[in-house]
Design brief:
Shape: elongated
Order of helices and strands: HHHHHHHHEHHHHHEEHHHEHEHEHEEH
Number of strands: 8
Radius of gyration: 30 Å
Largest sheet: 6 strands, mixed
Structural class: alpha/beta
Oligomer: single chain
CATH superfamily of the largest domain: Alkaline Phosphatase, subunit A
Helix content: 40-55%
Strand content: 5-15%
Distance between the termini: 103 Å
CATH architecture of the largest domain: 3-Layer(aba) Sandwich
CATH topology of the largest domain: Alkaline Phosphatase, subunit A
Strand order of the largest sheet: 3-2-4-1-5-6
Number of domains: 2
C-alpha cells in the first residue's frame, strides 16, 4: 500500500485569501458607517478591489510560476498597501509633530544615526560571508542614497520631507520582504491553508460586525400634516414640474454687505428679472444644514416630529431619516409626481427609497470611495497625480464634490427639457458656497496654495455660485416642457465673521440670515390668493403645495432655534436680527 505524502491534501488547495484580504478593509469601513451608507455604495469599490487582487495574483503567478507563493506575495502586498499604509499614515502624522518641535540638527542627526544602525545590522546579518556582507551593505547604502535623492529632489516637494522619508523607507521595506519571499525556496502550500483560514475568519468577523451595527429600529416617519388634505382632482398634465435647489452657506444681502463688504444686489436683480421673488429678510430655522433641510422638507419644526424621548446628546439619526422620508416628497408622490434627485456627494444625504431616480456625473467617485482610498497607498498616488497636473496634492479628494456641483449647473436644463408623462420634483442639494472652497469667481479650481483670507475665498465661491444658479434657473425656464415652479433656498449662512458667542446678534444674523427665492409660472398673480409664506424656510414648501395642489396648509409662526453641533435635538429659541435695514430696503426695492 502506497503511503500518502503529508502534503497531498494541499496539492489542489484553492488560493482565495488575497480576495478576502482585499475586501476586509472595505467591509471594516462600511461596518462603522452602516447607519449612513447604503449597501449599494459597496458594490463598485468591492468589484474594484477584487479585480485588483485577482490581477495581482495572476501577474505574480506568471512571474513566480507557483500559485501558492504568488498568493502569499499578493496577500502581503495588499496588507502592506492597505492596512499597513493606514498605520504608516498615523506614523507620519506623529513624526511631523515631532519634527516641528525638534531642531533641524536633531532631525538630521537622528537620520544619520538610523542609517548607521541599518548599515551595521545588514553587515551583521551576513557576517558569515564577508563578500556577501559587503555586497549587501553596499546595496543598502546605494538604496539609501537613491532614496535620499528621490526625497530631496522630488517627493519632498509633494508630500513634505518627513512624510517622504517614511514613505520611501516603507516602500523599501516592502520591496525587501517581497524579494525575500520571491527567493524563498520552500513549500508554500501549508501557508496557503493557514492564510485561507485566517482570511475567512477575518472576513466573517467584519460581516458579523456589519450585521451587529445594522439599525434594528425602523425608519423614522413624519406624522401626518395638521389638517385633512383633500386635493382636487388634478390631472397629471395640468401639474407643473417643481425644482427645489438648496445651497449651504449663502448669506443674506445685509449680512454680506455689513460683515463682508460684498454687494449682492446684482444677483438679486438678475433673479428678479427672471421673475423670482426674493424676500430680503429671509432666515433659516436652524443653523446646520441637515436640521434646516429636514424642517424645510417636512414643513414643520423638528420638535413637532422628532421623538421627544430621545436621550440628551442623541445623534442626528432620526433627523437624517426624516430628511430622506419627508412629508414634501410623500405628498407629491401621492399626487402622481416622480421624484428625481441629484447626488449631493455627502454619503449620509444620498437619495434613498423616496427618490425614483438619482442623477450623478458618470465615472465620479463617491464620498465612501474617497474615504476608502485615503486610507491606502492610493491617497499618495492620487496626490502625486494632482501635483503633476499642477494642482495642490490634496485637491483630488474634493474632485467628487466639484464634479457633482458642476453637473447640476450643466445638466438641469437638459433634465427640464425631458418629455415625461408624470410631473416631476427635481431636487438638488449643493454644498456651496460654504466650505470646502472649490471654485474661484470664474469657476476654475480654488487653489489653496494662493495666499488669501477665508473671507475672500468664500466671496469668490459665492460669486460663482450666484452666477451659475441664476443661469440654471434661466435654463429651467427656457427649456422646461412643463411650467416650472422653482424654490431656491440656502439652508444656513456662513460662520466666518460673526462673534465667538453663537448667540451674539451678529453671529445669529450671519448664521441664520439666508438667500431665499421662489418662482411660480405667471408671476405673483398665481399666488395672490395665498397668505404670505413669511420670511423663514419652514413655510416655503407649504406655500408651494398650496399653490400647486390647490390646498390650504396654514402658515406657521416664523421661529429660529440654536442647537449645539453634538446635541442636534437640544434647541434654544433665538431672534434673528437684521444688521443693515438700508441694505434690506435696497434689496426689497431693487
Amino acid at each position: 500500500m502506497t503511503q500518502r505524502k503529508p502534503t497531498a491534501a494541499l496539492e489542489d488547495a484553492p488560493v482565495f485569501h488575497p480576495l478576502l484580504f482585499a475586501a476586509c478593509p472595505l467591509l471594516g469601513l462600511y461596518a462603522y458607517n452602516v447607519h449612513h451608507v447604503a449597501w449599494g455604495a459597496l458594490v463598485r469599490p468591492l468589484v474594484a478591489v477584487l479585480l485588483t487582487a485577482q490581477a495581482l495574483l495572476f501577474l505574480f503567478w506568471i512571474g513566480l510560476r507557483n500559485k501558492h507563493k504568488a498568493g502569499i506575495v499578493t496577500s502581503f502586498c495588499l496588507l502592506a498597501l492597505m492596512w499597513g499604509w493606514t498605520a504608516l499614515e498615523t506614523l507620519i502624522a506623529f513624526a511631523q509633530l515631532q519634527v516641528q518641535a525638534a531642531s533641524p540638527s536633531m532631525v538630521y542627526g537622528a537620520l544619520v544615526g538610523l542609517i548607521g544602525v541599518g548599515t551595521v545590522a545588514v553587515y551583521a546579518a551576513n557576517r558569515h560571508n564577508r563578500r556577501r556582507a559587503l555586497v549587501k551593505t553596499g546595496a543598502f547604502l546605494f538604496a539609501v542614497l537613491a532614496g535620499s535623492l528621490v526625497v530631496f529632489l522630488f517627493l519632498g516637494r509633494v508630500f513634505g520631507l518627513s512624510a517622504s522619508i517614511l514613505i520611501v523607507a516603507y516602500i523599501c521595506v516592502i520591496a525587501a520582504v517581497l524579494g525575500w519571499l520571491a527567493g524563498l525556496n520552500r513549500d508554500f502550500r501549508p501557508w496557503t491553508r493557514t492564510a485561507n483560514w485566517f482570511a475567512v475568519i477575518l472576513f466573517g468577523l467584519y460581516a458579523a460586525l456589519i450585521l451587529i451595527n445594522v439599525p434594528r429600529e425602523g425608519k423614522t416617519e413624519p406624522p401626518p400634516l395638521d389638517i385633512a388634505l383633500e386635493t382636487p382632482g388634478l390631472s397629471p398634465e395640468s401639474l407643473p414640474d417643481i425644482y427645489v435647489l438648496l445651497l449651504d452657506g449663502h448669506a443674506r444681502c445685509d449680512v454680506l454687505l455689513t460683515l463682508y463688504g460684498y454687494n449682492n444686489l446684482p444677483m438679486l436683480e438678475a433673479l428678479r428679472a427672471l421673475g423670482v421673488h426674493v424676500p430680503p429678510g429671509a432666515f433659516a430655522n436652524y443653523a446646520w444644514n441637515v436640521q434646516s433641510a429636514t424642517a424645510l422638507l417636512n414643513m414643520d419644526y423638528l420638535d413637532s416630529f422628532v421623538p421627544q424621548e430621545a436621550p440628551e446628546g442623541a445623534d442626528a439619526g432620526p433627523i437624517v431619516d426624516l430628511y430622506h422620508n419627508n412629508r414634501f416628497f410623500e405628498m407629491l408622490r401621492a399626487n402622481g409626481y416622480e421624484i428625481i434627485s441629484y447626488s449631493p456627494g455627502v454619503q449620509a444625504l444620498e437619495p434613498r427609497a423616496q427618490v425614483d431616480r438619482c442623477l450623478s456625473p458618470p465615472r465620479t467617485l463617491s464620498e465612501f470611495e474617497v474615504v476608502l482610498l485615503q486610507s491606502t497607498v492610493s491617497n499618495r498616488v492620487m496626490q502625486l497625480v494632482a501635483y503633476l497636473q499642477g494642482r495642490e496634492p490634496g485637491a483630488w479628494a474634493q474632485d467628487f464634490r466639484r464634479a457633482r456641483i458642476d453637473y447640476v449647473f450643466n445638466t438641469i436644463g437638459d433634465v427640464a427639457a425631458e418629455v415625461q408623462d408624470k410631473p416631476r420634483v427635481v431636487f438638488a442639494h449643493l454644498s456651496v458656497p460654504e466650505l470646502p472652497f472649490l471654485f474661484e469667481r470664474t469657476g476654475e479650481w480654488a487653489d489653496p496654495r494662493i495666499p488669501r483670507s477665508i473671507e475672500e475665498r468664500y466671496l469668490n465661491q459665492l460669486h460663482y455660485t450666484g452666477k451659475m444658479m441664476t443661469r440654471a434657473i434661466e435654463d429651467i425656464q427656457a427649456q422646461s416642457v412643463r411650467p416650472p415652479v422653482i424654490v431656491l433656498a440656502s439652508l444656513h449662512g456662513p460662520a466666518f465673521r460673526g462673534g465667538i458667542d453663537p448667540a451674539e446678534p451678529t453671529a445669529l444674523a450671519e448664521r441664520f440670515g439666508v438667500l431665499l427665492g421662489t418662482y411660480y409660472p405667471g408671476g405673483d398673480a398665481d399666488i395672490s390668493a395665498n397668505p404670505d409664506p413669511g420670511p423663514s424656510l419652514v413655510n416655503v414648501l407649504r406655500d408651494t403645495l398650496n399653490t400647486v395642489l390647490g390646498i390650504e396648509l396654514p402658515m406657521l409662526e416664523d421661529r429660529a432655534f440654536l442647537t449645539p453641533v453634538d446635541q442636534p435635538l437640544e434647541s434654544t429659541p433665538v431672534t434673528v436680527p437684521i444688521l443693515d435695514m438700508d441694505a434690506i430696503e435696497d434689496a426689497e426695492g431693487s
